[in-house]
Design a protein that fits this description.
elongated, binds 2'-O-acetyl adenosine-5-diphosphoribose, about 300 residues, 3-stranded antiparallel beta sheet
């Protein structure tokens, strides 16, 4: 993406904000760090820097779907510390709500799974949770769904939540045996047939219930359909300003959004750390709560929850 020459300063950003009618806000973990929730990639404080003890080759594997199926305990050992609990929100969340109140918010594409936008009063139809959330959980075997908080106590107690209907099914039919598959997906060859249907003893295993997986989008899983549909079929055509806040923009496809938006639409980047792989028009570097508070002050907007003391 080629930077647009006419926009440079914070006052240009303020003018763009005042003029815009259809703002896309793209957010990441940086907008929640002031609430004590760690981001992922910040050196020393980010979640990934705290996971060395798990012995993974890459800490992102915590959210890898193949590893989850192999050993869900790795994810749940981390999940118990990142469950959304309190009904708090940051000034940056309040800023997104303010854009909504002013009729300027087209969509908030959030990569965050903490659901905190809702605490600030951002309406569900204004939010696309690109990486899902803890709001619901689904059985890995039978797709049974529960509200996310139904499994929070189990997760907090350090256990792996199992699917109740799967458990009941197994309890009802203890004699039911499940067919095992060999690695190439075909039935094992029947060398030691002992069961009365003539099949191999080793083709069977004791059935196990599915694990309840929070509906977070893991690496290796598709994003919710709503992400691509809304971006490409609706928002792309009408947006007149993009604001990216508190994200390293390292994870596709969210990282590709700036290049999907028409090149004439200005884009602002607000974060502690600059990025070099995407050309934004205006970079406002610093704590996002401070930056959005200053933008509102200059725009003459009343940001409840401001970081700037009122005089
Ligand atoms: P990252 O940790 O990669 O990036 C957070 C960015 O916010 C960094 O550039 C920080 O410098 C910045 N930051 C932190 N605190 C800030 C503050 N108070 N004010 C301003 N900036 C601040 O987090 P994400 O970009 O959100 O996916 O990560 C994207 C995805 O990678 C996540 O959704 C997660 C992860 O793997 C899944 O869990 C599937």
């Amino acid at each position: 993406r080629q930077k647009l020459d006419e926009y440079n300063s914070i006052d240009d950003a303020v003018n763009l904000l005042k003029k815009a009618k259809n703002i896309i806000v793209i957010t990441g973990a940086g907008i929640s760090t002031s609430l004590g929730i760690p981001d992922f990639r910040s050196k020393d404080t980010g979640l990934y820097s705290r996971l060395e003890h798990l012995g993974l080759s890459d800490p992102q594997e915590v959210f890898d779907i193949s590893l989850f199926h192999e050993d869900p305990s790795i994810f749940f050992s981390v999940a118990k510390d990142i469950l959304p609990t309190e009904k708090k929100f940051s000034p940056t969340h309040a800023f997104i709500k303010l854009l909504q109140d002013k009729g300027k918010l087209l969509t908030n594409y959030t990569q965050n799974i903490d659901n905190i936008e809702a605490n600030a009063g951002v309406r569900p139809e204004k939010i696309v949770q690109c990486h899902g959330s803890f709001a619901t959980a689904t059985c890995t075997k039978c797709d049974f769904k529960v509200p996310g908080d139904a499994i929070f106590d189990t997760i907090k107690s350090g256990k792996i939540p199992l699917c109740k209907p799967c458990k009941e099914q197994i309890a009802l039919q203890p004699q039911v045996l499940k067919r095992k598959r060999s690695s190439n997906g075909l039935q094992n060859s029947r060398k030691k047939g002992t069961f009365d249907d003539g099949s191999d003893e080793e083709d069977y295993d004791i059935p196990t219930p599915g694990v309840m997986k929070p509906d977070i989008t893991f690496f290796g899983e598709d994003l919710p359909d709503e992400f691509g549909r809304r971006l490409v079929e609706e928002d792309r055509q009408v947006t007149d300003l993009v604001i990216v806040i508190g994200t390293s923009m390292k994870v596709a496809p969210v990282a590709d959004v700036p290049s999907i938006i028409p090149s004439t639409v200005p884009q602002i980047y607000i974060s502690r750390t600059p990025v070099s792989h995407i050309g934004f028009d205006i970079d406002l570097l610093g704590d996002s709560d401070v930056v959005v508070s200053e933008l509102c002050r200059r725009a003459g907007w009343d940001l409840k929850h401001s970081m700037i003391p009122e005089d």
